[in-house]
Amino acid sequence: MKIVVVGSGPGGLSAAWAAKSFNRDAEVIIISKDTGEAHKKPGSAMALEYPETETLNIPDWSNASLEKMGIKVRSGIKVIDADASSKTLEIESSESDIDSVSYEKLIIATGGKAYVPEIPGTDLEGVFTIQNVSDSTEIGKQMENYQDIVVVGAGFSGLEIAEKLLELDKKVHLIVRSRLMRRLLEKRMSDELESRLPRSLEVHKGKSPSAVLGDERVTGLAINDTEIKTDAVIFMTGVNPKVKLARKLGLEIGSLGGIVVDSKMRTSDEDIFAVGDCIEMADFYTGKPVMMPIGSVAARCGRQAGVVAVGGQKVYEDTDLRFQYDRIFNTDIVCVGYSSEIASRVGVEVDVRFVTHPAEQMEIAVVTAKDGQVLGGQVISSRLGAKMGYQILQRMQEGTTLEDNPLLDPLHDRILASMEHRYGAIG
What letter does residue 253 receive in the DSSP assignment? Predict the structure, then answer.
């Protein structure tokens, strides 16, 4: 059996790894236009400071490790055409050599393209987006040329980049269209997070960029009626799914613009799977189409696709569940499942309950259906946030209510034992 994976992000690498692990006799090939290797989170931020480092790589997903496992990696290769009827891909190398690759099963992991608002000046020198370590490396090599930097976008990635730039003694402006992490956090939680940001970070709330200023290089950013002097602008405003290859193959594209997949990550072509930022999948509660451009979700979807592509039948229950964790500005930020904003987008009426643990400086929001079933939540905390987030995730998976299964104190031994049983030792 020959499996071809297009894309080397978390989804593609996880798919290749799973396929080879479940069927050692399968021929597995990864085709990627990128030349860099898989990196640890928060590698994109760290590469701003250490653009030449190799310590951010993920050992098990390095090209050498993949090749040792029997997975062939073809880097610097672009897919320029495809034909589903003959199961072939036309590829082009960096040397402009044209070749073709056949497949029995294809896994598309083409990811997403960084979204940049359609405003004047985004083509100036000094305007950036960051999707991977390669992007950060390019900025890092030029970092000494920039002192004042604007970050547009206040999601996980935008905050992470802003934190690293402050650590590098840069003057940082954060542009927030409404409030911090509006889609993922309740307003009370968003306000709590804002209160924990350092005063050295210039936050511009309720502002949107209207133009990047400058002739050839960036000199400023216009937001509403204000101009900010800056040397660089970094847009961290989300991604749009890359579906060009999927369209060439005649695959179904959904209402949200992503490749439509089922619970096994199979597309409208039974021999083609898709994972990562390029897909839309069924919401875990309503079944309505949703997009979750999150690395951990992509990796779980990749595992699912890889297993099924080589003949496995197992359906993993956690593929469609959101669990995002990061520690930014000395604060644990955890988002699990629904927020009230996400619930509203899929037409679900919810209630939100707030809990405070003063000893841990912890604020918790639990999102429930009208019948009390836990559907998600958020944690903002000085520490132990992941443990509390895991409790919320457990109750989601069990379909229980807080009345039936109340949250435990974050220091409770049962939490640590449960997490270590599933994830290994926790420091």
Answer: B
